[in-house]
Automatic annotation (TrEMBL):
Subcellular locations according to the entry: Cytoplasm
tRNA-binding in keyword set: yes
Gene encoding the protein: pth
Lineage: Bacteria, Pseudomonadati, Pseudomonadota, Betaproteobacteria, Neisseriales
A GO BP entry: protein quality control for misfolded or incompletely synthesized proteins
Family per similarity comment: Belongs to the PTH family.
Keywords for the protein's UniProt record, in alphabetical order: Cytoplasm, Hydrolase, RNA-binding, tRNA-binding
Major enzyme class: hydrolase
Protein name stated in the entry: Peptidyl-tRNA hydrolase
Amino acid sequence: MSQHKPIRLIVGLGNPGAEYAATRHNAGFWLVDTLAREAGASLRLDSKFHGLAGRGRLHGQDVWFLEPQTYMNRSGLAVVALAQFYKILPDEILVLHDELDIGPGQLKLKQGGGNGGHNGLKDIQSHLSTPNFWRLRIGIGHPGNKNEVASFVLKPPRREEQELIDAALLRAEQGMALVLVGEMGKAMAQLHTDEAKKRQHKAAPGEAQ
């Protein structure tokens, strides 16, 4: 199994301000908040990085945490500023973000690839001049109509969705030890579990699948 570089910067994507705090688009912020607390990192506004930034030690690794405060479509400004300042390469960056293409309760870890129309990813890719950073996609589901996407991501998840997302975030937190040291194959095996399907199996163990 190929070993990748350790992760030195974890970026959570979201929009600043209390009115956005509970919305689906801020799932990346939710996970960074948890990881930063666990690492003993205090996220403070740093104007040169256009965001809330802090450093801590998580699972034995020194890591920077960043929440851009630029609004989603200008996230790359913050990422490139911190990465250049501390000489962090794109393949040492993990971006945590909401993902429409997978359901609540699901996580997908990947490196590179397209941006799926996600404005935060699009801007980061543009500023870094490469798609070669890592992403942890946090499933929020899709409204079913692409014309409703803009309003969908700016609303809070329904209660049952929030429960699935919270369970996935807990799984992400537990899997971070593997991610940080570059054991991406093992991390994927742990993270790519569908929480909704797990619950279905528990609820109806005697039913044919």
